[in-house]
Design a protein that fits this description.
It is a single chain. With 608 residues, the protein is an alpha+beta fold. Among the domains are: 171 residues, no CATH class; 77 residues, no CATH class. The chain contains 17 helices and 18 strands. Strands 7-6-5-8-9-15-12-11-10 form a nine-stranded mixed β-sheet, with helices on both faces. The longest helix has 28 residues.
Length: 608
């Protein structure tokens, strides 16, 4: 074998460039025929002085002599030899004149081999990649990328970024390393990621974000067709991510309230409109200092929430001004009531059972003008949980007051009334609201500046967690719904929010390492696309009774790899077989539920 450097011309623009090919000369009778085994591309990085050694090393690896590594061979040349070997095996390229690359007929392939010569090389993860490609095929994603103008390498880069975010969440730099060193995705789509530089991944992110609206619209329309979705319920949610670094080149990078307690960093806010089934309808990136309660109107308009949709909001967004505006715009809403009052009349309620046979008591109350309804809900399980929370914080608060009381009888402790009120104030800050149920009094001494005693008394406030544990209320302008329908809609979307957390915690949303605005937006959009595929897979699995989290599914699938087994045959030739490890029971259950072959990539054989 040898490497040939050939000058060629691009058919697209007529530009000349040099391409590198791995060539083998074989004597056929009285003639010598040169055959190209692999196209190594125009960006072949091995220095010409090492080409001969690289070919010698390839011969060693192909003939089953992996231990004869020349000491003077640089590490990157050895890595290139291993990569070329993997490509030759994966493509079943014929090396000897007598060997053909044609597929073998079905049936047993019995060969005599030396068992002690077995070598296992090139393990690469394949499970998540396989499931991700299946989801892309079902959603017509590759065709969609072609329709919006991405060429072959750009589509491969985009698919690598998205599936990399599903399988090994991280930065684009980490994904680039994963594609080259750890994943079999390139084999599954017949693309060599080792030849793709990091900048190509970054540019692919740029292409995706510039076509965001068209991609999101097409994907959502596709899942609506596949699942027959009823697009009447919309979940509006905001989350934020933080930067590693100042991100001075991004005007959206602003300091604000971080949901990850990273307010020391600049933030970006991601706004999403989701369908009731959990699929993203529209996404938008906003500045990191936006306040949810003040930006609902602009964000719903920017995110193109459908007219007349039932919009579900959390407490932080459900201000009176926002609800009034939504009514004026024709939106329906279902929100958790911001009011802390807890009212519940057990004699005026209905009782329903959840899927886990837990009883929930519901009381529906109409407003005086009949335009709104409130649903008071009581859950025994929630009551026990909240009773435990209240008891823990009240015990902790009283222990703090008792410590102050004991200090009044000890020497060299502060007894000044103003200082003691400061200590009590700090206790109240840590009490999680239970301090409102106490009446505290400091008894001054004759000087009036120091305290000689402290008295406190528990006085629970009616309509709060302490007096009505397990009670919460919903608020809606959908007055025609009965109690059960309203509650089950709320619970469905509560479950959906737990699924949505996978985008935040399992798909590499945080942190952001980019500085440019477009690159930051692209990083977040890749996570959104990965979430769409994850949601598609989980919905299909849910139809078959598999309801595991994506983290659990990913860990299960990531254990399946493609690997090359190398044997010495009895005729002194070397047999290379590349295939996936056998699917274990949990993996097999996933593949059966998705109705796909449990052997990603099939079997490739090569005899040298």
């Amino acid at each position: 074998m040898y490497i040939r450097r050939t000058k060629t011309r691009s058919t697209a623009n007529g530009q000349s460039y040099y391409s590198h090919r791995l060539v083998r000369s074989d004597r056929m009778g009285s003639k010598v025929r040169q055959r190209t085994l692999l196209n190594l591309g125009r960006h072949f990085e091995v220095a010409q002085e090492y080409w001969q050694q690289l070919c010698v090393r390839l011969d060693q690896l192909l003939s089953g002599q992996p231990d004869l590594l020349p000491s003077e061979l640089p590490d990157y040349v050895e890595e290139e030899a291993q990569r070329i070997l993997a490509r030759l095996v994966a493509s079943e390229t014929a090396i000897t004149p007598s060997q053909t690359s044609a597929k073998r007929p079905s049936g047993a392939d019995i060969q005599s081999i030396d068992v002690d010569s077995l070598e296992l090389v090139q393990p690469r993860s394949a499970g998540v990649e396989y499931a991700g490609l299946w989801a892309m095929e079902q959603m017509g994603f590759a065709r969609l990328l072609a329709d919006v103008g991405l060429n072959g390498p750009q589509r491969a880069a985009a698919m690598g970024l998205i599936i990399g975010r599903m399988a090994a969440p991280g930065s684009e730099l980490a994904t680039h390393h994963w594609l080259k060193q750890s994943s079999a995705l390139g084999e599954l789509i017949s693309f060599d990621y080792a030849q793709m530089n990091l900048m190509q991944l970054y540019r692919s992110s740029d292409y995706l974000i510039r076509r965001r609206e068209a991609i999101e619209k097409a994907l959502f329309n596709r899942v609506v067709d596949l699942f027959g979705l009823d697009c009447t319920v919309t979940l509006y949610d905001l989350t934020n991510t933080y930067f590693e670094g100042e991100a001075g080149a991004n005007p959206k990078a602003q300091h604000g309230r971080s949901k990850e307690k990273r307010s020391d960093c600049s933030l970006l806010t991601l706004g999403l409109i989701l369908d009731g089934s959990g699929f993203v309808r529209r996404s938008e990136v906003f500045a990191g200092n936006v306040f949810e309660g003040h930006t609902l109107q602009g964000m719903l308009q920017a995110l193109h929430a459908p007219e007349g949709a039932l919009v579900v909001l959390d407490q932080g967004i459900a201000t009176e001004n926002n609800l009034t505006w939504m009514q004026q715009q024709g939106y329906r809403y279902l929100v958790v009531n911001r009011s802390r009052e807890r009212e519940f009349d057990p004699d005026d309620c209905i009782t329903i059972e959840t899927a886990t046979r837990e009883k929930v008591h519901l009381q529906k109350v109409h407003s005086d003008d009949g335009k709104e309804v409130r649903l008071y809900c009581y859950s025994e399980r929630r009551a026990k949980k909240e009773e435990g929370i209240a008891k823990r914080f009240m015990t902790r608060f009283e222990a703090g007051l008792e410590k102050i009381s004991q200090g009044l009888s000890r020497p060299r402790t502060s007894k000044r009334i103003d200082k003691l009120w400061e200590r009590i104030g700090r206790l109240k800050e840590k009490s999680r609201g239970v301090s409102q149920h106490y009446h505290i009094e400091l008894i001054p001494d004759d000087s009036g500046e120091q305290a000689k005693a402290i008295h406190w008394q528990r006085k629970p406030i009616e309509g709060t967690l302490v007096t009505h544990p397990g009670v919460y209320s919903l608020r809606s302008n959908e007055t025609a719904w009965d109690e059960e329908r309203m509650w089950r809609t709320y619970i469905m979307l509560t479950d959906l929010e737990s699924v949505f957390r996978s985008l935040k915690s399992e798909l590499g949303l945080r942190p952001v390492f980019h500085h440019k605005e477009e690159r930051c937006d692209g990083h977040l959009f890749i996570t959104v696309l990965a979430y769409q595929l994850v949601q598609f897979i989980r919905r299909r699995l849910g139809e078959q009774g598999i309801h595991d989290s994506w983290r659990s599914l990913r860990e299960t699938l990531n254990n399946q790899c493609r690997i090359t087994a190398t044997f010495r045959r009895a005729d002194n030739r070397t047999l290379h077989v590349r295939k996936a490890t056998r699917a274990e029971p949990e993996q097999l259950a996933i593949y059966n539920a998705l109705n796909i072959d449990p052997a990603p990539g099939g079997v490739n054989k090569l005899i040298i």
